Amino acid sequence: MAAGVATWMPFARAAAVGWLPLAQQTMPKPPVDKTSRSDEILFVNVSGLRFQTWKNTLDRYPDTLLGSSEKEFFYNEETQEYFFDRDPEMFRHILNFFRTGKLHYPRHECIQAFEEELAFYGIIPEIIGDCCMEEYRDRKKENQERLAEDTEAENAGDAPLPPDATLRDKLWRAFENPHTSTMALVFYYVTGFFIAVSVIANVVETVPCRPLKGSIKDLPCGEKFSVGFSCLDTACVLIFSCEYLMRLYAAPSRCDFARSVMSVIDVVAILPFYIGLVMPENEEVSGAFVTLRVFRVFRIFKFSRHSQGLRILGCTLQACASELGFLLFSLTMAVIIFATVMFYAEKGTKGTTFSSIPASFWYTIVTMTTLGYGDMVPDSIAGKIFGSICSLSGVLVIALPVPVIVSNFARIYHQNQRADKMRAQQKVRQARIRMAKKGATNAFLQHKEDGGLQGGDGDSTAFCVKNRSAFEHQHHHLLQCLEKTTNHEFTDEITYSEVCMMDSMGFRTSRSTSLSSQQGSTTTCCSRRAKRRAIRLANSTVSVSRGSVQELDTLHVTKTPVGTQYPQSRSSLNARTEDLKLNCTDYTAAIISIPTPPANSPDESLPNSPAIPGILRNSRSSTFNTQETVKISSL
Amino acid sequence: MHAHTHTHIHTLNQSQTQTLCVAVNMGLVMGTFSMQSNKQDRTYRKDKIDDDFELSIVCHRPEGLDKLEAQTNFSKQELQVLYRGFKNECPSGVVNEDTFKQIYAQFFPHGDASTYAHYLFNTFDSAHSGSIKFEDFIMALSTLLRGSVREKLTWTFNLYDINRDGYINKEEMTDIVRAIYDMMGKYTYPALKTDTPKQHVDAFFQKMDKNRDGVVTLDEFILSCQEDENIMRSLQLFKNVI
């Protein structure tokens, strides 16, 4: 439960007196707290630094090491104190958490050391207060990134290949890290050279060369030396195609490679050539074909494999796309406004160049960027006035935000990332905290099925519940009182919807209102409930069992056969949980137990257990798994 | 020429009004942008002033330990433990209704405990000051845990009697019962029907309202409760809470 709630427990219980006259059933007996109630000061010695605190302070968080009976493991009889061989500086923060309910992250401490301490004391880092949460997250992210970089650098290219690498692996490595072998380096430079050659050829073939003999018009070089240029083009395309196919072959994951940006660029670079081969020499189609030649310029992007800087630029543009988009949007707004104004201002002028609003767009853009080509000029006075306003605002709209955006790039980018991160992590945090809370509600539902509702024989229920803290006892008793007052029971969502479904289908189940009164009935509703809960149990963490449990097995059977679906494993957890899942359908369970007198009252088993307090602390769901467990097989 | 300029002026007027409209539009847009930022500034300043005001609320200290011990049925040690817990949760020394509701809601995660907490708050806050001090808290706890049967029943009667007129009528009781059922939440067995609270209230009145006049007075209430063994027995349940 949340912070400090334990201190309000007496108040909540006292307020339950308000329900009593309304109750239509008798109230359950309250849990008897045998331990002394007076508060005492505990001594905690952490590596020589002695702390003192009230016992109540530590009891506030019963699901941590210090708040539970787990701390008894560290109790030193001679010195009458709890001794922890951990960092005393960190412990100060841990103890402050107990005192104030807020966990702070000390900025000067290493993040990993802090997390280890938290894990040791059973505190989840998600409850760090908002004041320190951002710092904590940033440091953690930094740390993780640094670790990831380190491992990546280790794994990346420089390490020698394992001796049994296939040709594929070697080839891929050669492609990705050219400096590993001379062959790769040669290939790298050759492809770079051919990219350059191809791009230069594309450029040069449009330059006008001296005309052929007997003709006056200047020819572009591409047409004069068409054979040479086409040979060059073919050679380049062949080399690029070979390279692409080899990369495709060597790639460890072909799908991922085919979808990567670089491969798309490669494909776009060589595609026009092949399309041109395939296409017929048609007049109307060749127009489109000419457009395809434009795509040859994309070969220049292949240089990004050779240049780290280009890749970074691409990433940056990608990341700042939203800021650039906003700039574009505001520009568009201004352009549309001014174009409309100019068009209507110039409408009256005869022979005006502002023939339509889209035509005015050109004027607005040229004016706002202070280019001023002069191909469109306003004539009317209103046009000139608005034109000057347009150019002045152009300076403001474009020239001012651009440096601001550039300098804010990093800041806005990081801020947005952090805000989204915060929001995403907030959800995760809340989900985890909700899960821990839900554990509390589940604990109560679980407690009911353990037969905790059998108020009459307090002895038999004692062995089920002795592992709970006094606080849990009291809380469960409180919830039971509420149930009795209202004559309804708490259930979970699944059974509720199931019951609703059954009611709507007209299914009558012979269920009494109190689950506990079913001593051996196995109606389908009941069995499905238990089955589902058993499966949930199988999925949750199961602790290693302890102590002598045999007497309890048979007792379990006679009392509540429904609740005996707890897996026990002394050896392998996995095997048992499989068994459990298979056995859920059939409830005529036989108990395999070492033959011991079944008539042993559970009180005798009690002395064994207190010496071995519960172990698992962090997940609430494990509190009811720490009880004695049973080996089951179905008949 | 004259006609030309005439038409020229005419079209200019038309386009002029259009440009004027557009310019006004632009001005409005600029204005709204600037106004929004102004509003944000104002709310920020207002929050700051509120914060300062809140901090200046004085915290409350309870009367001396001896005095409290005399007034309640708790021993000094118990009072010490209670106060330490109370002070830790509410350093200012008072609990306001929101905090009270939050605290109580944590015990009933299944459903909504806020309505019942509201009624509880009003009962705890006997002076109707809007906040519960430590003394109010302790007095109520003393009555509920260590008080006589009559005192406990009187306290419960005051809880049910929402408007403090000395009578519990059906509407008040229905409110209370509905608030209690709200705490159960949605997922119960058997499923809650809409008239369950009403039935409960009817059963209650059947038992408590002796002279069938539609209201329950304090004496009727205490008498009926004393006749009911269940209630008498359960009143002793919470003796050892502290």
TrEMBL record, chain A:
Bilayer topology term: Multi-pass membrane protein
Chain residue ranges for the region called Disordered: 143-164
Location in or out of the cell: Membrane
Signal peptide (UniProt feature, chain positions): 1-16
Highest taxon in the source lineage: Eukaryota
GO cellular component, one term: neuronal cell body
Presence of keyword Ion transport: yes
Keywords: Ion channel, Ion transport, Membrane, Potassium, Potassium channel, Potassium transport, Signal, Transmembrane, Transmembrane helix, Transport, Voltage-gated channel
Annotated BTB domain residues: 40-139
Pfam family, one: Ion_trans
GO terms for biological process, alphabetical: action potential; protein homooligomerization
Transmembrane region(s): 183-204, 257-279, 324-345, 351-373, 385-406
One function term, GO molecular function aspect: A-type (transient outward) potassium channel activity
Keyword Transmembrane assigned: yes
Record text on subunit structure and interactions: Component of heteromultimeric potassium channels. Identified in potassium channel complexes containing KCND1, KCND2, KCND3, KCNIP1, KCNIP2, KCNIP3, KCNIP4, DPP6 and DPP10.
Sequence similarity: Belongs to the potassium channel family. D (Shal) (TC 1.A.1.2) subfamily. Kv4.1/KCND1 sub-subfamily.
PANTHER family: POTASSIUM VOLTAGE-GATED CHANNEL SUBFAMILY D MEMBER 1, VOLTAGE-GATED POTASSIUM CHANNEL
Protein's name according to its UniProt entry: A-type voltage-gated potassium channel KCND1
Annotated source species: Salvelinus namaycush (Lake trout)
Taxon lineage: Eukaryota, Metazoa, Chordata, Craniata, Vertebrata
Automatic annotation (TrEMBL), chain B:
Transmembrane feature ranges: none
Gene3D superfamilies: EF-hand
Gene Ontology terms: cellular component: voltage-gated potassium channel complex
Entry keyword annotation includes Electron transport: no
Pfam families (UniProt xref): EF-hand_7, EF-hand_8
Molecular function in Gene Ontology: calcium ion binding; potassium channel activity; potassium channel regulator activity; transmembrane transporter binding
Swiss-Prot/TrEMBL keywords: Calcium, Cell membrane, Ion channel, Ion transport, Membrane, Metal-binding, Potassium, Potassium channel, Potassium transport, Repeat, Transport, Voltage-gated channel
SUPFAM superfamilies: EF-hand (SSF47473)
All residue ranges annotated as the EF-hand domain in the record: 112-147, 148-183, 196-231
Localization, UniProt: Cell membrane
Family per record: Belongs to the recoverin family.
Protein name listed in UniProt: Kv channel-interacting protein 1-like isoform X1
Organism expressing this protein natively: Salvelinus namaycush (Lake trout)
Gene: LOC120062378
